[in-house]
């Protein structure tokens, strides 16, 4: 039998995708597959193959939080242009974890109530409890993305938000939150194809929003706003990861592997029993 080909390269996804000094978004190839040498079929297989490990690690995280071993939780922030595949991450990556172990929050245009408060108010309310993987479908970064592109607040106000965000995320990390920020990076051509598909298929019309075409016209301004957010909000304790997302199968695998690599680094274990196992086993055996 042929030896099974390894398809993940030696480089961890964390290292291949992390935004470092001098990162240029415009130079990142949206069709590339960093840290993975396999094709689509192998990529889909690799995704399914790692489902159980992700689920088990989350359960360990939860178990340890219940026994007071750790207050650790994860926050996965997913950002990206319209059609970049954020929904697919929720279904195909986060969907493999026990629903009791995850909390997903989708951030929309702020409500009247939310607008009365500072921009982080609704974000703080949605933070995960210990043991839980919190997932943000859009996030506080919209407050320096859509808000910056459309000047929804005066420039002096959004300009201050980068350091406010850095302070906020530093507090999270100090409070045992592992922060993983992912930008799903697609090309404008790929977006056009995905929007066209939404228009061509009646079962996808519900996903189409005529406003997406208006936003598409601001593509360059969005890319610039992303570049600034990546530059200014990538400290070592909470860097951004840019995931090439023109290939859906790769983007899903990459986000899953980023989650796995962060979870593995936490050295999770099953909590030791706080009762005498032999004694309880003997008791049970004596029962009818
Ligand atoms: P969707 O993710 O397709 O459901 O769209 C959500 C919409 O809400 C997007 O157009 C976002 O730009 C918008 N949105 C999210 N957060 C904010 C915010 N803080 N300010 C203004 N618009 C926002
Ligand atoms: Mg949308």
Please tell me about this protein's structure:
This protein is an alpha/beta fold and 288 residues long. The protein has a single domain, classed as P-loop containing nucleotide triphosphate hydrolases (Rossmann fold). The protein is 46% helix and 11% strand. Strands 2-3-1-4-5 form a 5-stranded parallel sheet, with helices on both faces. α2 (40-49) packs parallel to α12. The longest helix is centred in the middle third of the chain and has 20 residues, at 155-174. The chain is globular, with a radius of gyration of 21 Å. The protein starts with 12 loop residues before the first helix and ends with a helix. The model has no long low-confidence stretch (mean pLDDT 96). The structure holds adenosine monophosphate (AMP) and magnesium ion.
């Amino acid at each position: 039998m042929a030896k099974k080909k390894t398809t993940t390269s030696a480089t961890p996804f964390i290292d291949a995708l992390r935004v470092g000094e001098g990162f240029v978004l415009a130079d990142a190839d949206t069709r590339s597959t960093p840290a993975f040498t396999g094709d689509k079929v192998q990529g889909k297989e690799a995704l399914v193959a790692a489902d159980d490990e992700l689920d088990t690690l989350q359960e360990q995280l939860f178990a340890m939080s219940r026994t007071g071993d750790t207050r650790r939780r994860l926050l996965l922030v997913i950002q990206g242009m319209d059609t970049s595949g954020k929904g697919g991450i929720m279904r195909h990556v986060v969907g493999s974890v026990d629903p009791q172990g995850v909390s997903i929050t989708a951030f929309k245009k702020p409500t009247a109530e939310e607008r009365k408060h500072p921009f982080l108010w609704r974000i703080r309310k949605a933070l995960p409890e210990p043991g839980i993987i919190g997932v943000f479908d859009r996030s506080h970064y919209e407050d320096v993305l859509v808000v910056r592109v459309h000047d929804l607040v005066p420039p002096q106000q959004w300009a201050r938000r980068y350091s406010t965000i850095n302070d906020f995320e530093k507090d999270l990390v100090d409070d045992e939150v592992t922060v993983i920020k992912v930008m799903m990076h697609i090309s404008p051509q790929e977006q056009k194809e995905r929007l066209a598909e939404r228009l061509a298929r009646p079962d996808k019309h519900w996903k189409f929003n005529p406003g997406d075409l208006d936003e598409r016209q601001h593509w360059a301004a969005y890319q610039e706003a992303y570049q600034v957010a990546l530059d200014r909000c990538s400290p070592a304790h909470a860097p951004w990861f840019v995931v090439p997302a023109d290939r859906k199968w790769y983007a899903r695998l990459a986000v899953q592997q980023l989650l796995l690599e962060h979870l593995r680094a936490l050295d999770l274990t099953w909590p030791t029993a706080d009762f005498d196992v032999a004694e309880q086993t003997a008791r049970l055996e004596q029962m009818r």
